[in-house]
Amino acid sequence: MTATSRIWTARVLTLFPEMFPGMLGHSLAGKALDRGQWALSTLDIRDFAEDSHRSVDDTPFGGGAGMVMRADVVDRAVDAALRADEADGGGSPAVYLTPRGRVLDQERVRALANGPGVILLCGRYEGIDQRVLDARGVEEVSLGDFVLSGGEPAALALIDACIRLLPGVMGDEGSLEEESFEGGLLEYPHYTRPAEWCGRMVPDVLLSGHHAKISAWRRAESERITRERRPDLWARYERSATVADGKRAK
Ligand code: SAH
After folding, report:
1. How many Å is the maximal CA-CA distance in the chain?
2. Distance set, CA 126 to CA 46, 179, 195, 197 (Å)
């Protein structure tokens, strides 16, 4: 198969395969899944346990609360996913969802969506024995600075963010271009009918029909909201704007 004809595929390693496709079986993602615009497979990590109790976890070395998912069991599951990916042409990165990972952003989502797919490792309990992550060179990705009870909601969120960027999945491709994080800013606020609601008016400029003024207003709102809410994004945006101005000046 050529790279272009490959279907973007998510392979999820989990102790709870019944949680998939879950919400991704609905709405635009679900329709795209039915149409074959992306594919999903789950591997039950418990199927890779070899003892009579099918145990996947054990107590942590060094003591402490909770259980840790075993390196040998997880490794067999990762190996199976990598071999399945290889059979389809290979190249999908293996990602472990963990609060200790690099926080997921739109840039990484875009890169993953542009690739052949992703292998997602969902943790439970206290997490996974570090050795299997190191040995397999697994990328560690976090959804944000909070703790979930398992990697599955994070995997669903990551897949959702990727598939909405795949060609033909969203009804209106143009709506992707103006979104938050495209161009380094948060999006401007939206309004629809009725023009007056509970004494609150839609900003006049949006009713003016004057496209240039509307664009300028939206741009200014994007900048104001980013500056107020996300000083980190604003600083990066200002730096890149300065660089762009410098290049133009030359
Ligand atoms: N003991 C761990 C938390 C384990 S939570 C710690 O303190 O870092 C159990 C599982 O939920 C993790 O293995 C991971 O797969 C998932 N998880 C929890 N929070 C997450 C987050 N912010 N992003 C991605 N996955 C998360």
Report:
1. 72
2. 17, 36, 51, 49
Q: CA nearest 94: which of 63, 64, 132?
A: 132
How far apart CA 6 and CA 88 sit, in angstroms, is: 8
**Ligand 1 atom closest to 128 (CA):** 13
Q: Are strands 196-197 and 200-201 parallel, antiparallel or unpaired?
A: antiparallel
Cβ-contact 98, 141 below 8 angstroms? yes
Per-residue pLDDT tens for 156-206?
999 999 999 999 998 776 677 778 888 899 999 999 999 999 999 999 999
Paired sense of beta strands 8-14 and 68-69, if any = unpaired
Q: Is 54 left (phi over 0), alpha (psi -120 to 50) or beta?
A: left
How much is the pTM?
A: 0.94
For a mutational test of ligand 1's pocket, the pick from 124, 147, 160, i.e. the residue with the most ligand atoms closer than 8 A to its C-beta, is: 147
Tell me the best of 15, 108, 122, 148 to mutate to test the pocket of ligand 1, counting ligand atoms within 8 Å of each CB and taking the most: 148
Instruction: Extract the tokens encoding 127.
Output: 């997490």
CA of 147 to the centre of ligand 1 (A): 5
